Amino acid sequence: MFLPIFFIFSFLFSSTNAADFCVGDLNGPVGPAGYSCKKTATEDDFSFSGLRTAGNTTNLVKAAITPAFSTQFPGVNGLGISIARLDLAVGGVIPMHTHPRASELILVMDGTLFAGFISSDNKVYSKSLNEGDIMIFPQGLLHFQINTGKTQSVAFVSFNSADPGVQILDFALFTNDLPTDIIEGTTFLDAAQIKKLKGVLVGTG
User: Fold this and answer.
1) Contact 34/71 with Cβ under 8 angstroms?
2) Which residues contribute to the annotated binding site?
3) GO MF terms on file (predicted)?
4) Residue positions in the annotated binding site for oxalate?
5) Domain positions in the chain
6) pTM score > 0.85 for this model?
């Protein structure tokens, strides 16, 4: 009598491992639910060392983002979590942007950041953040971070999605072929300013 019960429990517990996680198969297709599951997972799928190294801040915004999303860290695929590292040189900025699929929590590790977001009723919530401070940016809302200190700033940002997505406002407007007259009519910027920004951000139109 006890033997069949033992086999039933053994089957139940062994079969649940397959549903514990879905390490992303980066060679397969990706859809709204993420990557399809890798057939065989290893310990390396559940660890990531990419956030040890500072990003390159010698660019237009003097900042770098190093993501550990499902594309870089397939172990988080389907788990609804991810993380990234922010490095900002003095005066560096993470421009106005949104994450359409996740809320964001920032933890300042070094330096000082001025950060904020704009709610859907256009109210601004902003604050100066120091080492050890955290701040939340609700899903889909425009937000930003600026290094207002005199030293390099480092922060880690976590998301409640393995693939939070990002849309940077300036890049969305000025790095593509959206016609200048359309941007002028929808933003109230003058054509000369739009063409200047398109020139800086390599846009056309």
Assistant:
1) no
2) 97, 99, 104, 143
3) manganese ion binding
4) 99, 104
5) 43-166, 175-205
6) yes
In this prediction, residues 90-110 reach a mean pLDDT of 98
Whether residue 38 has pLDDT greater than 80: yes
**Spatial distance between the Cα atoms of 102 and 139, rounded to a whole number of angstroms:** 5
Q: Which value, to the nearest 10 degrees, does the dihedral of the CA atoms of residues 176, 179, 185, 189 take?
A: 60
Alpha carbon of 100 to those of 64, 154, 172: distances in Å?
Answer: 20, 24, 14
Residue type present at position 178: L
Domain 43-166 is in which class? mainly beta
Provide the annotated binding site for Mn(2+).
97, 99, 104, 143
Look at residues 109, 105, 116, 68 and name the one whose alpha carbon lies nearest to residue 88: 109
Q: Which whole-number Å values give the CA distances from 130 to 113, 145, 151, 201, in the listed order?
A: 7, 12, 12, 31
How far apart (Å, rounded) are the C-alpha atoms in residues 111 and 81?
25
